[in-house]
Amino acid sequence: MKKLLVFVTVIALLLPNSVIIAGKFVNLDDTVRFLVEFKSPSLSEYTRGNRSLHMERLKDIHNRFKSWIKTRFGRGRISVEFFNVLNGVVIEISPKFVDIIKELPYVDRVTPDVKVKALLKDSVPLIRANYVWGLRDKLNRTITGKNVTIALIDTGVDYTHPDIAGSYAGGYDFVNNDPYPLDDNGHGTHCAGILVGSGNASNGTYVGVAPDARLYVYKVLDNNGNGSISNIIAAIEKAVDPNGDGNVSDHMDIISLSLGIGGIEGNPDDPICRAVDNAVCEGVVVVTAAGNDGYDFSCHRAVRHTIVSPGCARKVITVGASTHLEGSYPSGGPDHVALYSGKGPSYLMTVKPDVVAPGGDVNFYLEETNPHVYDHGITSTRARLSSIGKPLNLYYTKLSGTSMAAPHVAGAVALLLQKHPDWDPFDIKAAIRYTAKDIGYPLTDQGFGRLDALKLVNLTTPPPVALFYDAIYETDKVILKGIAKSRYFLDYKLYCRYVGKSNPDKFDYSDGWILLCECDEQIADVVNGGTIYEWNTSELKDGWYLVKLVVTDNMGRKSEDFIFVNVNNKEIFVNVPYSVGEGERFTVSINDRYGNPVNALVIMNAPFRVPKIRYGSEVEFKAYDVRIRKNIVAGIWAIAFLPGEITIKRVPIVIENQNIH
């Protein structure tokens, strides 16, 4: 018999007068911000016809929803509307109305507007950006990011700083709703210095990667480094369509995002990931931080599956952190992957991060308030009156994190775009991966290597694009979706190798590959990802398979990508609420991986409680009374009698004491 564990997390009712939203108790009479997404595609996703006409259809849907809200509830404030990278609105309304809104035929989903957090002298030469400044573009200008626009979405920027003032070109403060995105935290200013710092305040010592790029700043995080998903999406919309006229030809060239939903593995289909992926399809290169959850310092071990949202999005360039100093502690260095750097595989079991770049080291063994935490951090610009990091003087401070790594890559992209303004975001992502330096770590840690700006900008033509989007499971087959294309396309090949039944955590295998297919037609649907291969898995033994995609151009250059596929025709899924109130009735359903219902013996048990037993594919239980002044964890067991095998799965469910708040 097998015992398999699955984690199922949903927002569940807790008590008659309250709910849990984003881990917090909320009274049903309070108003809460929710993001309502509509089923019709956003402008970025719409590919079938006239965008102007589609924009009018989207406006009609929004007006219909606003009218319905006013008529149905008489309350509920629509605070933000999205059309470009997402089709939806932000509404402030009581949680008790959310289930009613979800039933509207044109509503796709409703999610809480949860909080998001903010995640040179030595680092710029390490990636060889200073050598790029001596190269020339087609107009015989030095390559320093000239005429390239970068949108920095962060805590704002001290645009009076002598290193930043020359590059600052405007922006908006979505926290305070004004056109002055001044930094009251310090995080954004530090990132800006890595991107475009001129070095004026240090006599040229601390110069950013692309000092002549034009910087637009969108403040979405407050003085504590916190912000909402809706403000971030609003900033992405602004970067994609600055004047809001529906024509995105004036879009920013690059978006740099050093923020994320920390503490949990990111879901590439959440609203913020959909927004950044749609921005990429509009021609914007989006660079994101991988997150800083890649190491458990209490247990002294690396932690996989720690790529945060939006770093887990399919089409963005996700950046982990490497060290840049001799004697760097505790990661070692230079050119070591920082211990804390978020690690893959991704939620989709693909390669993340894409690359690493200098982010400095963090001494997590010291208290966070101890300035020596950042002794081996990145030196960059300090916001006026800010005490963030380890201040060196009035103008500079040290900080570390994947937040610092991401602008190194965004700056390198600016250099590349000055030389090759016609390259699209997929060309650029492929080029970043193709030219990265292997520093000896698994792909789950370093991605395809450490950024090498000189090798990147020295490319004369873009390398092939190899990128997996999804593995879609259907009965007896797996459909692999993605991109396999090149301006000089020759062919693509798919290989696989069996890696066993345990959950895999590395992509690095040198042998044992079996050719699955070879194709001389490229797959170039960048919006949805085309079908790379339909794989018949009916005769395969159960377990994990690693699939490798190799795209070759007619110059002999090869680009690769990887994805893990799980073949398990006898797997079952047990769907339960994450938590329920004592005495509350709840439903348990069981299905196979294709969504088909599966009959099973279903048992609820808990310490010192009499087990309750049901049978079927969808059964109902009444939660135990708690009786003590704390919550209890019950187990839901499903025993399915499948052909030739008995499959057992247990899922925990928290039963909440209604007197605990």
Find the CATH superfamily of the largest domain: Peptidase S8/S53 domain
Give the overall silhouette.
Answer: globular
DSSP strand count: 38
Largest sheet: 7 strands, parallel
What does this 3D model show about the protein?
- The chain is globular, with a radius of gyration of 25 Å.
- Residues 1-28 have low confidence and may be disordered.
- The protein is an alpha+beta fold and 661 residues long.
- The strands form ten sheets. Strands 11-12-10-14-16-19-20 form a seven-stranded parallel β-sheet, sandwiched between helices. Strands 1, 32, 34, 35, 37 and 38 form a six-stranded mixed β-sheet that branches.
- The chain contains eleven helices and 38 strands.
- The chain folds into four domains: 31-113, Peptidase S8 propeptide/proteinase inhibitor I9 (Alpha-Beta Plaits, 2-Layer Sandwich); 116-437 and 444-457, Peptidase S8/S53 domain (Rossmann fold), CATH 3.40.50.200; 465-567, Immunoglobulins (Immunoglobulin-like); 576-656, Sandwich (Immunoglobulin-like), CATH 2.60.40.
Explain the layout of strands and helices.
Blueprint: E1 2-5, E2 13-15, E3 18-21, E4 24-27, E5 32-38, H1 51-73, E6 77-82, E7 88-93, H2 98-102, E8 107-112, E9 115-118, H3 123-126, H4 129-132, E10 149-154, E11 168-173, H5 187-196, E12 214-219, E13 226-228, H6 229-240, E14 254-257, E15 259-260, H7 271-281, E16 285-289, E17 295-296, E18 301-302, E19 317-322, E20 355-358, E21 378-381, E22 390-391, E23 396-399, H8 402-419, H9 425-435, H10 443-446, H11 453-457, E24 465-474, E25 477-485, E26 489-500, E27 514-519, E28 530-536, E29 543-553, E30 558-567, E31 572-575, E32 579-581, E33 585-592, E34 600-605, E35 612-616, E36 618-622, E37 632-642, E38 645-656
Parallel strand pairs: 1-38, 10-12, 10-14, 11-12, 14-16, 16-19, 19-20, 32-38
Antiparallel strand pairs: 2-3, 3-4, 5-7, 5-8, 6-7, 9-13, 9-15, 17-18, 21-23, 22-23, 24-25, 25-28, 26-27, 26-29, 29-30, 31-33, 33-36, 34-35, 34-37, 37-38
